[in-house]
Specification:
By secondary structure, this protein is of the alpha/beta class. It has one domain (3-249): Aldolase class I (TIM Barrel, Alpha-Beta Barrel), CATH 3.20.20. It has helices spanning 15-29, 48-55, 82-88, 98-102, 108-121, 133-137, 141-153, 183-200, 218-225, 242-249; strands at 3-8, 37-42, 61-65, 92-95, 124-129, 165-169, 209-213, 232-235. Helix 1 packs parallel to helix 2, helix 7 packs parallel to helix 8 (183-200) and helix 9 (218-225) runs parallel beside helix 10 (242-249). The two termini are 17 Å apart. The chain binds phosphoenolpyruvate.
Length: 251
């Protein structure tokens, strides 16, 4: 199973900046990309095509969308469909990133619809789950993560290839804060997620990748990526610059 090194550029970068950053990453990793790694760049919608053009001939590089609306087409002003993401060059998409759940008020039910619809449409889906600091303090890690996982996956049609589903554990208190979950916390959450994936998908649960996200940097990535059940990372801030993200990919 290849480790997935994903860069979430959130609402940063113009078309030119995104294309130039992607080109620089391809150049920096041309001779140093580890064989067991894949790079996924997730730019804002407006820059997807420019990033796709920059990476399309680079082995092991992919482009993803940060979100979409779960319908093929229609009167959904401001939204984008899985088909439009695929058309622009994406093969992955995020669902349920904590900023969508907590800033934009997205429900776990809607996240579940997105995962099911995205998979049906041919996108590989990255379902993000994670607890807030209050939930952690109240001892609700298991309850929150399992609830998000079940709501996110229970409507997905079975029979998809295990490479098409990825779960990202991103404790909300670690996203963009500089606070990284420690090895013990990561191991505990990823073990819980693996156990639930095996219960939900007995045939392929062991092959579904589980990423860690939350203030990953070049100097902590090596330790994180070596932990049991950590099959890659989802990186925000430290993925915006080609040199720092390249160091993460090779960590
Ligand atoms: C994220 O956006 O998913 C994320 C983990 O951000 P950061 O790496 O900045 O914490």
């Amino acid at each position: 199973m290849k480790k997935l090194m994903a860069a979430n550029w959130k609402m940063y970068k113009t078309w030119d900046e995104a294309r130039d950053t992607a080109k620089a990453m391809v150049r920096l990793l041309a001779n140093s990309m580890p064989k067991d790694r894949e790079v996924l760049l997730i730019p804002p919608f407006t820059a997807i095509r420019g990033v796709y053009d920059a990476i399309r001939d680079a082995k092991g590089f992919y482009v993803g969308g940060q979100d979409f609306y779960p319908a093929a087409e229609g009167a959904y002003t401001g939204e984008i469909s899985p088909g439009q993401l695929l058309d622009a060059g994406c093969c992955f998409a995020l669902a349920g990133h904590s900023e969508r759940r907590h800033v934009l008020g997205e429900s776990s039910e809607l996240v579940g619809k997105k995962v099911a619809f995205g998979l049906d449409s041919g996108l590989s889906m990255i379902l993000c789950v994670g607890e807030t600091v209050e939930e952690r303090k109240e001892g609700k890690l298991t309850e929150v993560v399992l609830k998000q996982l079940r709501a996110g996956l229970n409507t997905a049609a079975r029979g998809f290839d295990p490479e098409m589903l990825v779960v990202a554990y991103e404790p909300v208190w670690a996203i963009g804060t500089g606070l990284v979950a420690g090895p013990k916390e990561i191991l505990e959450a990823h073990k819980l997620i693996r156990k639930e994936l095996l219960a939900m998908f007995p045939d392929i649960g062991s092959e579904i990748r589980i990423l860690y996200g939350g203030s990953v940097k070049a100097d902590n990535c090596g330790e994180i990526i070596a932990l049991d059940n950590v099959d890659g990372v989802l990186v925000g801030g430290a993925s915006l610059k080609a040199d720092s993200f390249s160091l993460i990919v090779t960590a």
